[in-house]
Amino acid sequence: MTEIDFKRIVEQAGIPTTEAGWLALFKQDVQKEGGVINDSPYSPFWRLVGALVAKPLTWIVNTLLVEKVLPNLFLKTATDDAFIEAKAWEHGLTRKSEARTQGTVRFFRAASTGPSLLISAGTLVQTDLINGTVYRVITQDDAILPEGDASILVPVVAEQAGAAYNLGEGYYHILPAAVTGISQVRNDEDWIDVPGADPERNDELKQRTRNAYTAATPWHIDAVYRAMLTARSGLDADNIYFEHDAPRGPGTANALILLDTGTPSQTLIDELNEYVGAKGFHGHGDDLQVMAMPGVDVDVAVTIYPHTYLLDDEVASLLADVADFIRCAFRENTNYQATRTRPQSRFSFSRLGQELHHQFEGINSLSWAQGDISSAINVPRIGALTVTNGNTGAL
C-alpha cells in the first residue's frame, strides 16, 4: 500500500509545520500591516511569541492534524477505532463482537451393545496442550445415547469466546472426567455449526467497509453477497470465493466458504443458503448456492534435525510443537502465526520452513519430503502428517 505523505500535503497547502515557519508567517503578517518587529533570538517578545504561538501551532499541525486527524479521515490510512467505526456506520456496518464456537462432538459407546447412556449437560471435552493452552467445549443439554447405537453427536459450546476454539478434526478428544459407558470422544471434520470469533479487528472491519462501497448497487453482484455473508460472525471477506461460469446452468454461481480453522458444518451451510435463497435475499433471477470450500488431502512429511544440546523430553516437545505449527498452516488451529494454505495459490514449503526456524530455536535443520502445492478452487488439508527426528528416526 502506497504511503500518503500528509505532512507534504499540509506544507503544499501553505500551512507551516515548523516553529520557524510559523514565526516567519507571523513576522510577514506584522510587516504587511506596516509594523516593525524585533526578531532577535534574544528578544523577550520574540521568544514569547515562539513559546505561546509557534510551539503550540506546530504541535497542533504535526501531532493533531498530520498524525491524527488527516490519516483517520480516509479508510485506507485510518488506525483509530472510533474513526474506523464511524466510517463503517456510514455504510450501515458495526464492528462484529466476539462469539463462542458451537457445534457437535461425537461420543462413542465402550461396549458393542448395551443400555441407553446418559451424557449430562456440562460434560467437558478438551484438547491436548497446544502451544501452552488447553481448549475445552461443554455439552449444552443432557443427551441420551440410545440402546444399540454405537455413537451420538452431542451439541457443545466453547468454554470461552474466540476463533482459537475452531479447531480441526480430532482435536477435541479428551474427557477430563469419565462418562459411564463412554470409551472415547472426538469432533468430526465438519463439526462447527457456529464459528467462534474474536472481536473484529480494524483491518477486517476496514475490508468489510471497503466492500460496502461496491455493494451499494441494487444488483446482486459478488460484493453484495459477500457483504451479506460476512455479516455473520466468524466469516471474513477474504475467505469467501465465488465460482461463476454457470456451474448449474445460465445465471448460476457458487459462494465457497472457508474458515480460518476447521470446516463449516452442513448445518451452517444450510442456514446461509436459507438466508440467501429461501428468505429472499438474492437478486432477481439469481441462483447462488453457498457451499463449503472443497478440501484436498495432502500427505506432509518433514524431517527435523534438532540441536544436539536438547534433552530427550525437549526434543519430543519440539517435534510435537512442529506438528501443531504445520497443522496451523493447514487450517487446523490458530495457535501460531503461520502462513496458511489458500485456494488459487501456491503454498511454499520453503517459507513454512523459514517460519519453523523462526518459531523454534531448537531446530538445527529440516528437510521436506514433498514440493510446493498449487491449489485451484480448493484448499489443501493434511491427509497424513509425519514428523521425523533426523538424529534418531521417527518419534
From TrEMBL:
Residues 104-191 form the Baseplate protein J-like barrel domain. InterPro entries: Barrel_Baseplate_J-like. Pfam families: Baseplate_J. This is Baseplate J/gp47 family protein. The lineage of its organism: Bacteria, Pseudomonadati, Pseudomonadota, Gammaproteobacteria, Alteromonadales.
